[in-house]
Write a structure and sequence with these properties.
Rossmann fold; elongated; 6-stranded parallel beta sheet; 13 helices; 434 Repressor (Amino-terminal Domain); homodimer; 3 domains; DNA-binding; alpha/beta; 6-stranded mixed beta sheet
Chain lengths: ~350, ~350
DNA sequence: CGGTATATTGTAAACGTTTTCAAAACAAGT
DNA sequence: ACTTGTTTTGAAAACGTTTACAATATACCG
């Protein structure tokens, strides 16, 4: 591999000049620039990224730390982030923690060791271990942006989230407006109890609020509590809900994958969808469009989330805006075929 | 940030000794090792990854270049690779080209500039531009492994693929054994014509061979040709196929997402699945398990593919095995609810 | 033409590590 | 004690850039 020295020798200039040409600095005579450019081409010189990263003590890599990357939601989010970053010249180190705190810590360490310029994170916990990690990052001068989750302290870091309360509210209103009065809600254990201000809880809060606001005679039945929002779980608790509560006319699942599970169990129990039951999901992942009937859902602007998270981080990294920024995006009802007026 | 110098001073040894402790070399007296370790802990020293990568001229990063990462197949593959790499201490730079050749080239350049140790690639084209790129990689001493696609010349690089011919064969045999004789096949334009030895063509070849081998009275109808194997496309060509060929008892789609589309259109046309029509997919992605009825499919061992690609690459990077290795994995029929004996 | 400002170039130091080489310390055999 | 061999340590060079600084060339002004 040709180095900058070779180019300098070949073009009869100093390495400083070559560096200036490569990095497109001013103060290089056009003639010289041309000679150097030719030398670079002739030698097939490519700057050693490792060396320049080392010298400047920063790589053009940003870390993206998500919980899982197998899920449709995470995939779509990661994809949006990667694309935006790519266009801006950054490369993405994508890591999935699988909810494993140790692994999350290990990745964070690696990222620091690699001197990533910034990190986009969807943390696995809200605990103080996390808070400590964030402050470590801050000390190290690494830009941080949260996505799909707010930091505990609003000024700790930027974040991009959706208004899950409003989303829950919208979904419930949709069902109520369609005439549904006996509605099942499939939501995780934490969400139902409404402990932390996490995504799920917010949605349930919105659901409750809508019910309280809009009508007096709606009856909400919650599914059995559970921990992970997977298709399998949706199928199980969905089946249980449907068989134990024969009067339900609609089910609102707080995740598309849960909704898919519910839909599957409804089919299996012989229900004719959407005639016998309306089903509403949440997320708007691609999978929700492939079911039969297609799933009505509260769609998150996933692509936009990723994009804004990326641009926010870029702004921080470039020092354009240093104060944390809290972005809240709106969810929108995607009315498809799985929800109909109650007959 | 404390540097190795600080540690050396603090522990009253030379930086060489600290380096030896950090990198766990022999020839360090236990007593000294302990002192140094303590100094490291006290100062919170962490080796500067950029510096050591620079010095050794290699990072612990491997590049993974896939076509798309939004698709279930790619996601699952990427996930498997990342996990395996993580366990072995490597970090993954995940890039999706979206089939854009320029972007692919750009990523490849970046990877080289970053001095990645190895690259796992699912190239977007079979052209000679690719061949040239591969030889460039080879010249640069970067280990390469193909996944889900063989290199043109078997000894150009290692590869991990599935036996798509056999998979197509198995699928067709399955349908024939179930008594189906009028079978629709949904496959892309290239696959039908059987040009290159790409994944789709191989599957179709297997389908043809099975039909020829196993029975004389099977009648295959191909869908209209198309370019991208998406759900949307599956729905469109599926609908066209079903309406134009009323006698079909089964449809074999060469991709799960296509199959999902076909299933959707069948539902929409009022067919009762699987009674009125059997549908068979290919890939075994998670999505195939969430339909109703659950999709029978020729499952690829996606996780294994990723894992083997990763370990193969690691072997190359570590110099354990230098000769290219061609791994061919078997697909297996995943018999679920969407295929039944013809009545 | 002298002087001053500005544009262009080169020299050399620095970044933090790994690694070669030689020196020092120690052990063991005579 | 005197080799001889082995283990342990340190000094210093190197890796390929970027960049501060100085030096030189050029332009402009009177």
């Amino acid at each position: 591999m040709a180095t900058i020295k070779d180019v300098a020798r070949h073009a009869n200039v100093s390495i400083a000049t070559v560096s200036r040409v490569v990095n497109d600095y001013r103060h290089v005579r056009p003639a010289v620039r041309e000679v150097v450019t030719k030398a670079i081409a002739e030698l097939g010189y490519r700057p050693n990224g490792l060396a320049s990263s080392f010298r400047t003590q920063q790589s053009n890599i940003v870390g993206v730390l998500l919980r899982q990357q197998r899920t449709p939601f995470s995939s779509a989010l990661a994809y949006a982030i990667e694309n935006t970053m790519f266009d801006q010249g950054y490369r993405v180190l994508l890591c999935s923690t699988n909810g494993d705190a140790e692994r999350e810590a290990a990745y964070l360490e690696t990222m620091l060791d690699m001197r990533v310029q910034g990190i986009i994170i969807r943390p696995s916990g809200t605990g103080q271990r996390m808070a400590k990690q964030i402050s470590t990052l801050r000390d190290r001068g690494v830009a941080v942006a949260f996505v799909d989750m707010k930091p505990r302290l609003a000024n700790a870091a930027s974040s991009v989230v959706c208004d899950n309360f409003s989303g829950g509210y919208q979904g419930m209103r949709h069902l109520i407006e369609l005439g549904h009065r006996r509605i099942g809600v499939v939501a995780g254990a934490v969400a139902q109890k409404g402990g932390a201000a996490d995504v799920g809880s917010e949605r349930v809060r919105g659901i409750r609020q809508a019910a309280a606001d809009l009508t007096s005679d709606v009856e909400i039945t919650y599914s059995a509590p559970f921990d992970s929002a997977s298709f399998e779980v949706g199928r199980e608790v969905g089946a249980a809900l449907i068989t134990s509560q024969p009067g339900l006319t609609a089910i609102f699942a707080t995740t598309d994958m849960l909704a898919l599970g519910v839909m599957h169990s409804a089919h299996a129990l012989g229900l004719d969808l959407p005639r016998d039951m309306s089903i509403l999901g949440y997320d708007g992942v691609m999978e929700s469009a492939v079911t039969f009937p297609t799933l009505s859902t509260i769609a998150q602007p996933i692509h936009e989330m990723g994009q804004i998270a990326a641009t926010t981080l870029i702004d921080h990294m470039r020092g354009l805006s240093t104060t944390p920024r809290q972005v809240v995006l709106e969810n929108t009802l995607l009315q498809r075929d799985s929800t109909i007026r109650v007959t």
